[in-house]
Structures are given as structure tokens and as C-alpha cells.
Amino acid sequence: MDEDRDVSSLLLWLDQNGVSTSMFCCAVHDFGRGEGRGLIAKRDIDEGEVILSMPQRFLMCYDLAFESGRLGEILKQCIKERAVFITCSAVVLLVHFLYEHMVNKDSFWKSYFPVLPKCYHNSSSFTDKLMEMLQNNSHIQEAKRLREEANTLYFHSLISFINYANEHLGNDFWPRDLIPSFEQFLWGWQTLQTRGCYFEADFKLNASSDKTGLPIKSSADNCCLIPFIDFANHSPHVDCSAGFNKETNCYEIRTHTPFKKGEQVFISYGKHGNSTLLHFYGFVTSPNPFDSI
Predict the structure, then answer these.
(1) What is the DSSP string of 258-278?
(2) 131-179 confidence digits (pLDDT tens)
(3) CA 50, CA 254: separation in Å to the nearest integer?
(4) Is the sign of the CA dihedral 158, 163, 165, 170 positive or negative?
(5) Where is 99: in which H helix or E strand?
(6) At 259, phi and psi to the nearest 5?
(7) What was the pLDDT predicted at 293?
(8) For residue 136, which of 45, 165, 195, 210 sits 20 to 30 Å off, Cα-Cα?
(9) Distance between start and end Cα atoms, the chain
(10) How do beta strands 250-255 and 233-234 pair?
């Protein structure tokens, strides 16, 4: 199957770049209809173990975008000129992600992109008919707000940046035929929303970005994409801790919930009720102890 081949290519890429995937305590597994792919325990996993670890070079982070050749230079110029369309660090990461995916044929990340989902189910992509099925006015209004936010990000931020960059660097920087459609943009934006990992506020991997980047206001504004780690699915019934370990120079997730060999290995995306999970991740869980009326 194509999906199996894509995962094998991802693991080979990691191995070739110094990550010993055979030592992982988890493996990618298709859990079937309704669950899709996730991680399965290759052995018994004890409470307190680091279950997922990835070196810094495999973290696609906002601040590293400023070191990405011509893209980095034009982003620095945007920050210096206080360009109004670069509104937050997430916009920088989104620009970086879409540029690497759609424009840079020699991207370091090209083995990562094929394993990403082809579509998402966040409410920002809901049609009016789907919104009506929510049967709750507050949920409908939130879905409409997120859809309007996505429209604003596409036209005001992404397209404005591309036009600015092409004006300064020439139309070969981001060729017209490779400019993302709204649907392609939304896929990228939802990739960040559903698969992003987070750092502590004000933590940066690159010291140089302190002078070139935007101020990080909270951990929710300090996002990165991490291959393989983002296969882990959410459960409200497990506990874990995550963050960048400066001693190992890796992003690590430590479980506080044991797993038996053959069980799906879950992590927690946070103490989210089903409303948040639906709007920002595209799924709900039942039962969910964090639901409130």
C-alpha cells in the first residue's frame, strides 16, 4: 500500500539522518476505520518512560524558518519592516511549511509530507450544512469564526506575503502556478492546528531569532511540527509531559500512563472538552471527563 511505503520512506529518512528508529518503543499501526493510524507499543511501557524523542534538526519550528535561505531572508525583512501581514509566529511557520511542501523541490522535509493526512475535519472547513448539524448556536458561531479567521489568514497573510516576496525577490521565488489555493492553504493551516507540538513560552531553538523574530506571547504561540511524534493520537484518559530537553537536545514526551505490548500508545493533547477537540482537531471522544455543560 502507498501509505505503508510512505511510512517506510519516513523511517528510512530518519535512520539515514542519525535517528535509530529500531530503538523506538512504538511503531506506526493502522487501527482501522474510525481510528486510522496511530502508535502501537512494541513492548511493555512503564509509567515515567520517555516514549517519544526527536532531535532538534527534525523540529520544523517557526524560528528556524529565518535560517531557510531566501525564505529566511525575506521573512527577516518583513519583521524589520513590521509588515502587517506577518501577524504571529504561526503565520511564519505556515509560510515555511507551505514553501517547503509546494515550492522547494530539494526540501529536507520531502519524506515527511507524504505521511500527512490528505484532509482534516476541523470546523473551519465545515460547510453551512455541516454547521447546522451542530445544533448548538455557540458551536455554530465558533465554527463560523474559525472559517472567517482562515479566510483572513489566507488573503491578508499568506497571499500578501507571497506578493511581497515576489515583488522583492522576483516571481521565480514563489512561482504563480505554485501559489496555494484556499483549499491547499487550509490543509496546511489545519496540519499545524492538529499536529503541532508546543514549547514553553519564550523558548527558542535558535538564539539568532531573538533579533529577527516575533515575540512569543505564550506556549500556544510557540508551535512546531515533528515527524513521527505526530502519529500519536489523543486520549483524555492518559497523562504525559512534553517539552524540549536541552541536555539531550531532543523534544521528548514522557508518559505517566503505562501501556502493554500491542496496545495503542496515546498521549494527551491537553485537558480539552469535545467542543475544543471538534473545532481544532476534528474529532470528539466519548466519554470525555473534560466536557462541561
Answers:
(1) -B-TTSB-EE---S--HHHHH
(2) 888 878 898 999 999 999 999 999 999 999 999 999 999 989 999 999 9
(3) 4
(4) positive
(5) helix 89-102
(6) -135, 145
(7) 46
(8) 195
(9) 43
(10) unpaired
244/252 Cα distance (integer angstroms): 6
Q: CB burial class (10 A; 0-12, 13-18, 19+) of residue 54?
A: buried
The residues near 159 (Cβ < 8 Å, ≥ 6 apart) are 179
Crossing angle of helices 137-152 and 182-195, in 10° steps, is 120
**What are the tens digits of pLDDT across the range 60-91?**
998 889 888 999 999 999 988 888 888 888 89
Three-state SS at 264: strand
Would you state the pLDDT for residue 83? Answer: 86
C-alpha cell belonging to residue 252: 521528548
* Residue corresponding to grid cell 517519544: 52
Q: How far apart are CA 124 and CA 120, in angstroms?
A: 10
Count of CB atoms situated within 10 Å of the CB of 155? 13
Nearest Cα to Cα of residue 71 among 104, 109, 112, 113: 104
pTM of the model: 0.92
Please give the grid coordinates belonging to residue 43.
513492548
Residue 197's SS3 state is strand
* % of residues, the chain, pLDDT over 70: 92
Backbone dihedral angles phi then psi of residue 39, each to the nearest 5 degrees: -115, 140
